[in-house]
Amino acid sequence: MTDLTKMKVAEARDALRKGDVTSVQLTESLLSAIEGADALNAYVHKTPEIALDQAKAADARIQAGDAPDMCGIPMGIKDLFCTKGVPSQAASRILEGFKPEYESTVTTKLFDAGTVMLGKLNMDEFAMGSSNETSCYGDAVNPWRRGNDDALLTPGGSSGGSAAAVAADLCLAATGTDTGGSIRQPAAFTGITGIKPTYGRCSRWGIVAFASSLDQAGPMTKDVRDAAIVLEAMCGQDAKDSTSADLPVPNFEAMLTGDIRGKVIGIPKEYRLDGMPAEIEKLWADGIAMLKAAGAEIRDISLPHTKYALPTYYVIAPAEASSNLARYDGVRYGHRAKLAQGDGITEMYEKTRAEGFGHEVQRRVMVGTYVLSAGFYDAYYNRARKVRTLIKKDFEDVFAAGVDAILTPATPSAAFGLGEMTEADPVQMYLNDVFTVTVNLAGLPGISVPTGVDAQGLPLGLQLIGRPWEEGDLLNTAYALEQAAGFVSKPTKWW
Amino acid sequence: MSIDKQTAARVAKLARIKVEDDALPALAEEFNNILGFIEQLQEVDVDGVEPMVSVTPMRLKRRVDGVTDGNQQDKVLKNAPDAREGFFAVPKVVE
User: Which residues form the active site (chain A) (predicted)?
Assistant: First the structure.
């Protein structure tokens, strides 16, 4: 038997049904790989007992016949998802010791389908970051390196642990969440596939909230077919999330034909940034050529408000975060500061939040507080909501003109070194999301697909943006791009 | 718009985050960097544009106003840093 950890979801599904492998065997192989991979700091709470119990149950279900696709598939779960009885900390000190008494809707759906949970995955604190360096668990590490250079690189963020775990074969797939690029940027940095579905596709219930109008869950996988399979299992209407869409979930995998003849692919001129590295330019040009060769029509388009997307995001996301994170007050769950003689409830709140929140989270909560405060609400928050309307309209206009999908780079660079951005102004870090954040503001589906490597051998990804609710068509275009690019590189094991 | 030390202190207070006095100047500078970046939004013509309320056009669902859940006091209190006699316990609020 080949190395089971290297299996993809679709392969494992088929092998499980044929009886070539059991879920227990798959799970045991992955658990032992995880034990040997602490250097990557991808898993922050390992759950081997739960995994083996779930695997045994899945094997019995498969034997009985009629098991769903995800039955017996071992996955890693981002720490942002509340999992019953298992630490769920959003990588924050303020949720230290918190073990939810309930299960998020997305993990409930996965577990009901027979999915196996290997453990909880590292991330940026409250999903605020682009390098996994704001985690209370320490940095997650990218399994990729620059040639023979042993400098540690970021797996991206915020779903950095998810990306590292999938790329290093420490799970067959992982859940991620994406508020401004947190699935797509780490996927691009680690040579894997990640899709953020349309806002409302996945229930947000039980996922620790960051910016509720932007947050969406999605899968991070080894290829596009796996993304289709796992996404289908995660989606669906949920009475517990009033923004979840009451729409049927199609069989996404069945839509992967690879035939994109006649599809119109838009190339937005505003994504051609000044000073963009030549490697990214070339990656993009190559992607355009691949889709053209596959029979798509390439069309130059304009999304005129693109340059305002990041500043809009850095008003709206902190504003929503300041409101969502008000619940961490040291009363109902998590950390409470030790109080001095005479301290009252206000001191309890202030000390608890100062000790519990990391620097970036504090900064964003305070920026959000400022833009929502009396006298600035109109100038900042309301103005940002108006610009958001214009950003969404840019996309509506090009889709109305017949564009089926939009092709852009996923990130402005390959993975950078851990610590390299420490001294930089926070705005420099925010620029990582320049190509992905528009998609969250407009509520659209977006997918990152690895299509090449840079001069140092690091993976690079392209992003495809689709029409709302048309993840199936988007996945099919991504599938055609994946077939043409033929990206098969894997990181060399050093950990 | 420039944020000074006093404004930074006021924002920290509103956010209920304790910031030591000597950390305030650096915090004010960080705010100024971020707000400088956000300032670009002032150049966009937003006359007559509706502020976005919901990214997908939807009517929020309604349901019957009835009890659907409850009777789980133990579970609700399970994660509390300090729970006594079936309540969350906090420092004295009223003198």
Answer: 78 (charge relay system), 158 (charge relay system), 182 (acyl-ester intermediate)
Residues of chain A contacting residue B46, judged by C-beta atoms under 8 Å apart:
383, 386-387, 390
Give chain A's domain count: 1
Summarised one tens digit per residue, pLDDT across range A163-217 is 999 999 999 999 999 999 999 999 999 999 999 999 999 999 999 999 999 999 9
Q: Decide: helix, strand or coil at residue A104.
A: coil
pLDDT tens figures, A42-83: 999 999 999 999 999 999 999 999 899 999 999 999 999 999
Which three-class secondary structure state does DSSP give residue A76?
strand
Could you tell me the residue range of the domain that residue B17 belongs to?
5-42
In a domain, A225, yes or no: yes
Rounded Cα distance between A187 and A167, Å, is: 9
Q: Domain limits at A144?
A: 4-262
Is residue A65 assigned to a domain?
Answer: yes
Domain count for chain B, please give it.
Answer: 1
- Phi, psi (rounded to 5 degrees) for A423: -85, -10
| Residue A155 domain flag | yes
B24 inside 8 A of chain A by CB: no
Which CATH number covers residue A133?
3.90.1300.10
Q: How far is Cα A172 from Cα A8, in angstroms, rounded to an integer? A: 6
The reply to whether A254 touches chain B by the CB within 8 Å rule is no
Active site residue A196: no
Token duo for residue A141: 């590490």
**Sequence letter at residue B89:** A
Is A490 an active-site residue? Answer: no
Residues of chain A falling short of pLDDT 70: 1
Q: Is A392 a catalytic residue?
A: no
Q: Which structure tokens are listed for A216?
A: 């969406």
Written as tens digits, the pLDDT of chain B (95 aa) is: 589 999 999 999 999 999 999 999 999 999 999 999 999 999 999 999 999 999 988 787 788 999 988 999 999 999 999 999 999 999 988 77
Are B52 and A385 an interchain contact pair (Cβ–Cβ within 8 Å)?
yes
